[in-house]
Design brief:
By secondary structure, the chain is α/β, with parallel strands linked by helices. It has eleven helices and eleven strands. The chain has helices spanning about 35, 45-65, 85-100, 110-115, 160-170, 180-185, 210-225, 230-255, 270-280, 290, 295-305, and strands at about 1-5, 10-20, 25-30, 75-80, 105-110, 130-135, 140-145, 150-155, 260, 285, 310. The strands form two sheets. A six-stranded mixed beta sheet has the order 3-2-1-4-5-11, with helices on both faces. A five-stranded mixed beta sheet has the order 8-7-6-9-10. Strand 6 and strand 7 form a beta hairpin. The longest helix has 27 residues, at about 230-255. The structure holds 5'-O-[(R)-(carboxyoxy)(hydroxy)phosphoryl]adenosine and zinc ion. The site of 5'-O-[(R)-(carboxyoxy)(hydroxy)phosphoryl]adenosine (KG4) has 20 residues, from helix 5 and helix 6.
Amino acid sequence: MLILGIETSCDETAAGVVAEGRQLRANVVASQAAVHARYGGVVPEVASRHHLEAMLPVVTAALKEAGCEPRDLDAIAVTSGPGLAGALLVGLNVAKGLAFAWDKPLLSINHLEGHIYANWLLDRTPEFPAVVLIVSGGHSELVLARGHGEYTLLGRTRDDAAGEAFDKAARVLGLGFPGGPAIERTAREAKSKPPKLPRAWLGESCDFSFSGLKTAVGRLAAEAKYPVPEIAAGFQESVVDVLVTKTVRAVREHGAACVLLSGGVAANGPLRATLAEKSPVPVWAPPISLCTDNGAMIAAAAFYRAESARAGLDLDVRANWPIA
Ligand code: KG4
Ligand code: ZN
C-alpha cells in the first residue's frame, strides 16, 4: 500500500510517500522558516499564502523522489488538524482535489498522531504499550499508546508548548527564529556553570507549564549577570529535566515497553541523550528530518488508519483536535 501524505498545519509545506506504513520513499519539505524569521514567529496568513505557492511543486517533487506516478498511489492522506486553520485548509483542499482527480481514497489524519508514527519509519518496530512524548511548537503532550489508535492522554501543557518556550526564550535572548536550534547551538558555547532556572513540577501531575520559565529567562537577560550562552544552557536544562522526569515517571507507572519521542523539540540533542540515559526502557526518536513537520509521518500514520480515517470531500479542518 503506497500512500501520499500531505502536511500544512503550520509553516512547513510537506509531502511524503510511504509504502506499507514503514518504508520511506519520499520526504519533501519546503520550509518557510526564513520567511517568518523576520517577524520572530509564524504569521498565519503569510503561512497560508506560501503553502498555496509551494504545495503542488512539493507534491510533484515527492512523487518524483519516490519514482512513482499518481496511478501507483493507493490513498491520499492529509493533516486535517490540529493546527492553523488557514494553513490546514490549503493542504486539505489540495488533497481533496488530488483524491478527486486521481480517484483515490482520502484519509484524514491528526497531526499529533502523525508525529507519533514518524517512529514507524525506523528500522525496528516500536512495541506497545508505549509512552509517547510529543513536543513541538504547538504541543507538549504525554500520551499512553496501548495499540494503534488507542491513546490515553496522560498530561499536556497548561500554557506554552515546549517548542514555543524555546522560541520565546530565544527571542528574549536575541537569538532569532526558530528558537530551538538557536538555543541548542548557543548553549553549547557556555563556558561556566549555567544558572539554575525554575522547574514547574505541578505536584504528581503529568501536565507541563513553561510560561514561568520564559519570564525567568527575561529577568536574567535584563540583569545581564550571566552571559547569553549560560542563560540558554540553564533554560535548556530546565526544559529537559522536566520533560525527562515526567516521561520516565509515566513509563514506570504504566509499565511501558518503550518511549516514543516526537515533534520538533525531539530534535534537541540534550533531550534525546538525557532521556536515553534515564529511561528504564528503550527510547525511540526519529532522525531530525522526521522530527519536525513532514508529510511522510502523515502517510505512515494513515497506513494504520486506512479504514477509520476514510473521509469524504466534505471533510473540514479541525484547528483544535485533541489526540485523546
Ligand atoms: O513539530 P514542529 O516542526 O512544528 C509544530 O508542529 O509545532 O516543531 C517546531 C518546534 C519549534 O518551536 C522549534 O523551535 C522546535 O520545534 N525545535 C527545537 C529544535 N528544533 C526544532 N527545539 C529544541 N531543540 C531543537 N534542536
Ligand atoms: Zn508538528
